Amino acid sequence: MKFLDEAKVFLKSGDGGSGCMSFRREKYIEFGGPDGGDGGRGGDVIIECADGLNTLIDFRYQQHFKAGRGNHGMGKNRTGGRGNDIVLKVPVGTQILDDDKETVLLDMTHVGERVVLLKGGDGGLGNTRFKSSTNRAPRKTIPGFPGEERWVWLRLKLIADAGLVGLPNAGKSTFLSACSRAKPKIADYPFTTLHPNLGVVAVDQRSFVLADIPGLIEGASEGAGLGTRFLGHVERCRVLLHLVDGTQEDVAGAYRQVRHEMKAYGGGLADKPEVLALNKIDALDDDEIKERSKALARAAKCKMADIMLVSGVAGTGVPEVLRALVAEIGDARAADAEDGEAEDEGAAQGTWTP
Q: For the chain, what is the domain count?
């Protein structure tokens, strides 16, 4: 199934049904009076966060979604039926943006979350509504009110526990295939990965979701190489695994370039916990590994012992990296739980009345 993380769609809620003009006509009742019913309300446009979806491919071939129109009012004071709602099911992590592609209208982050984005138009009024002591046979009705309509952008930001970042051809897809059952495309040229991949990683009876995004290039934070879309996928990750290709000469420059793009993008990416690893050590001898680990530690301002050595092809160091990620994910989850408890306590204190 093709991965699609962005789509533009047109949404329209249903128009309200018109009110009815009718009069009671029965045998032996000469002046029956008005009995026109009101129109029904138009259907709503509802966004629902559904489980089991991981792409927006459903919105590639259908871009127009319209809710049902409310039924018109009828005689004998019968109100028209409500129009059918239309429900758009989106994956977890989908953002609904306005037509300007900047204003965030909704952020769907929980399975089962349902939000009414556009409300249907109100139904019109029948002539019964206008009966008065001075106007016993009104011929006035009000048509249904129109629904809302707008163009919106759907943007998917993957929700994963850990995210892989690095320059193109740093070995991210190879690492993902080595530690999970994901089968991303792997080749010896840059930009082999053109869309994000997800894999479920199991280590020491624990599991987490790892996201592999296409490599970042210079100017990615400004949109070069679709960098802003790719960086958005790791924006929600708890921890980042930064892979640096050990076979290149300037490993420090490669590290600084990715860190610069993450800081320029914002969104708290640069402040996330990071596990730094020197990749492709199977192609290096001991002296080269030591030299490049030292240069990488100097650029990252950390100890050489903090630089993890890994080879996705040979499997060297993969379990150690996964255990480091599990530890960071556990700390991040504990911090999130403490923040949630603090917010709950603050809300409780704010609503307390002695």
A: 2
For residues 191 and 296, the model is more confident at 296
Which class for 340: exposed (0-12), middle (13-18), buried (19 or more C-beta within 10 A)?
exposed
CATH of the domain at 97: 2.70.210.12
Please count the other Cβ atoms lying within 10 Å of the Cβ belonging to residue 345. 10
Helix, coil or strand: residue 199: strand
Residue span of the structural domain in which 206 resides: 162-339
Q: How confident is the model over 123-151, as pLDDT tens digits? A: 999 999 999 989 988 999 999 999 999 99
The pTM is what?
0.69
Q: How far apart are CA 172 and CA 230, in angstroms?
A: 14
DSSP symbols for 120-159: PPPP---GGGG--SS-SS-----PPPP--EEEEEEEE---
Instruction: Answer yes or no: is 352 within a domain.
Output: no
Sheet holding 206-212, edge to edge: 197-203, 206-212, 162-165, 239-245, 274-279, 308-309
CA angle 282, 284, 287 (to 5 degrees): 135
Q: Which two tokens stand for residue 65?
A: 């979604």
DSSP for 62-103, please give it. --EEEPPPPPPPBTTTBPPPPPPPEEEEE-TTEEEE-TTS-S
> In this structure, are 4 and 126 located in the same domain?
yes
Provide the pLDDT confidence category of residue 72 given band limits of 50, 70 and 90.
very high
Task: For residue 196, give the CATH number of its domain.
Answer: 3.40.50.300
* Domain termination site, one of 156, 180, 213: 156
Integer Rg of the chain from CA = 29
